[in-house]
Amino acid sequence: MYNIVETGSNIYASPQYKPMIESMIAEYKPAKNNAECPFRHQPSRHSAVESESIRKEVDVWLQDGIVRKSSLNSASRVVVVKKKDGTDRICVDFRQLNSMVLKDCFPVPRMDDVLFCANDVQMYS
């Protein structure tokens, strides 16, 4: 399973798979006790090179429809992580936002159960 995901890892944010990305968008449901409590992290300090790579990546995301401009009164922190090849990976720290979102009341299936059920499958789609 890991090999399947690893070999297809370049397709996840590709513009040609935009319909797949759009189908994964979830509606934000704030918890009642946090509905009136927006948060705004202070921007992290980045070098000029990191700031430029953040700007370029966000421009690509805007162009591909992966993100959109927002006027919300909340902001999560941007983190730059080095990949194995030395290039920058732009990440967003959504931990505080995730803590404010209502949790779904149905359990996610256990991965080992899913893999056990898919053991004899000839083709995955």
Automatic annotation (TrEMBL):
SUPFAM superfamilies: DNA/RNA polymerases (SSF56672). One of its GO terms (biological process) is DNA biosynthetic process. It comes from the Eukaryota. Transmembrane segments: none annotated. This is GM10168. It comes from Drosophila sechellia (Fruit fly). The gene is Dsec\GM10168.
